[in-house]
Design brief:
The chain is of the alpha/beta class. The protein folds into 2 domains: 153 residues, 3-Layer(aba) Sandwich (Rossmann fold), CATH 3.40.50; 230 residues, Thiamin diphosphate (ThDP)-binding fold, Pyr/PP domains (Rossmann fold), CATH 3.40.50. The protein is built from 16 helices and 13 strands. The strands form 2 sheets. Strands 4-3-2-1-5-6-7 form a 7-stranded mixed beta sheet. Helix 14 links the parallel strand 12 and strand 13. Helix 7 packs across helix 8. The two termini are 39 Å apart. 48% of the residues are buried. The C terminus is likely disordered. This is Pyruvate dehydrogenase (Quinone).
Amino acid sequence: MRDLARAIDAAGKVTIFAGAGVRHARDEVLALAEKIGAPVGHSLRGKEWIQYDNPFDVGMSGLLGYGACDDAIHDADLLLLLGTDFPYDQFLPDDVRTAQVDIEPARMGRRTRLDLAVVGDVGETLRLLTPQVEAARSTKFVDHMRKKHEKALGGVVGAYTRDVEHETAIHPEFVADQLDQVAGDDAVFTVDTGMCNVWAARYLSPNGRRRVIGSFLHGSMANALPHANGAAFAARAAGSDRQVVALAGDGGLSMLMGELITARHYDLPVTVVLFNNATLGMVRLEMLVDGLPSFGTDSPDVDYAAVAAALGIPSRRVTDPADVRRALEEALAQPGPALVDVVTDPRALSIPPNITAGQVRGFAAALTKEVLGGGMGEAVSMARSNLRNVPRP
């Protein structure tokens, strides 16, 4: 503990990266951040516990990430990993001194370099650590990262949530942002693996009462609706009328469509918001990054609202962005299951906060192959769909 305190005191710039292990240590993390002037980034599983009402928040890292978290991690003199087993080592620095606090010894140092390790509960550790560290003499680093974060939120993250009510095709970012605004303050959101993870990570606002549940450890597809049905059963057993909302992709829903029958049979108050782009968006993105044109990722254009209606579930298919908010409000007001089938832009991509040279080369190679293969129109359409979403210095 003393070694960690000395390392923090010796570092001019400290960044905290928090995971799910800070669930019961929120106050302790913020107290340490305030004392040492540290920006606080987080993983997806840590987001709901540490982001809200956090004056030191700089967002998420990773392909799903946003904000200034990546800059804060790489520009630090010391990176302090708290309760996180963040697996995407390509987004973690190998040239920044790193300390890790975790209750599980097997997680120590298995993702990135490790200079200092403290095995223990995050809350208990920080209660002992914080009194031992010196107060920061300057808040220049955290202030700079906060400004970067605010700029990023107004750029990449906010690109398709403003002035888009009359633009077609519907951008999924707009749908997620509208859902965030109309859903309940204690809603339970379940999210499909893939692009729905991205939209949930960037646009659903935690507040200490909301939950976001997904297959975050396993990455299993088609999890949103089964998770939502389970959450609705649990809420019913507890005598709660808590909203349960499934952010589902058409790929995931098509795999376990029978779960719609379950929701209808038990009259579960589950609202399914379907991001229907008739493609496996995350797979498509991964192929583009690796320099491969999309192949085998498209699926049939299915009217899932009609499928739900055939099962007796109130449903609506939305193709006009001006209708999105009303459709969501009406679905959330239903006493039982409901489905909103939103036809979204299949070319919309999740652009990470920092694009590497390798990713640029991959995109360029993939688009070149698209053009040489006769897909000039597809390449132009993809550029148009994402031009506003490209990070700018």
